[in-house]
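Dear colleague,

Thank you for sharing your sequence with our group. We've completed the structure prediction you requested, and as agreed, I am returning the results in plain text so they can be pasted directly into your records. Please verify that the sequence below matches your submission; if there's any discrepancy, let me know and we will rerun it promptly.
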Amino acid sequence: MRITITTEDGQIHTLDVDQDMEILNLKALIEADMQFSTTSQQLYHNGNLLSNDKATIRNAGIAQDDILLVRILAQAISQAEQVRRRILADPTLRFQMIQQYPPMEQALNNPQQFERIFNEMQRQAQMQRQAISVSDDPFDIESQRRIEEEIRKQNIQQNLGNAMEHHPESFGRVIMLYINVTVNGHPVKAFVDSGAQATIMSPECAEKCHVMHLLDDRFAGIAKGVGTAKILGRIHSTQIKVGNQFLHCSLTVMEGKDVDLLFGLDMLKRHQACIDLEKNVLRINGEEVPFLSEHELPDKAKEPLPKDQTPESSQPPPSKYPEEVIKNLVALGVSREEVISALDAAGGNPDVAAGLLFQ
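Please find the predicted structure tokens below.
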């Protein structure tokens, strides 16, 4: 059925609803459509306040094409929410805000996220006012230091904003270059590193590839660079299959590396290899060997989980909603926090929550 929602300032919106929908879920739809939080709404039908949020539209006596008045409790609207609505209502202001601070585009559609950003801006503004306040002595050294530090922070923030606007790709993660090779019949994912002088293999990989018996420990020692690592020795000659060709290679067996096999500059120069980033291949002896995509990388090369997502702390926070409902909504491609926020706004109704998430 169709109903009309109007506000005291003359806004009019039409909604398609089900007669068995509860008033609380109707408020959630109004929040999604008109940006009024459910806690700030008072709905009136024929002059009567709809005070029972659990009542259905049918039980409340609302019929096809009826008009409901929504009044907003001024005290329930925070300063951040008032600013958010003002920006949403002014396309020019919204465009300017997003240009100056790109994360604002997403935050404008998320009241909680916007409030966090707004409060942080307020806090920074307060700190700035404190920093530029001049003491009784205008040449006070501490006061001048605070002003200098604030100017420095502003320059950094401006630099960050310019980078995010003009070079957003610089904030992405760059994956390292790996290729598939075979050593003595055993497949290995080799890290291609033109900054390493020699081709290096870990003792564990040498054991797995059954070449450890060829180790010459007279070449043992300590490698120094960024930190130190113990060199166990050298394997003077073995075959590595790269693509469709077999290449002779000498290996330095070294502890303390996070890679099984490091394809170093010695091999790259010996075979006049070319790292072609345009085609994303290693060109060697005329053959193009593709670099591995991110999901094909060995576990050691993948980006580690943030501290709050490590296995010891990976348990999701408890929720008053059934985990099965949360998992079903998360499977649609949104975060757990967004799902819980949508369920809060929808009064626990998963269908309404899904509508809020993908409106």
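Summary note from our side: Confidence is low (pLDDT under 50) at residues 305-314.

Kind regards,
the structure core
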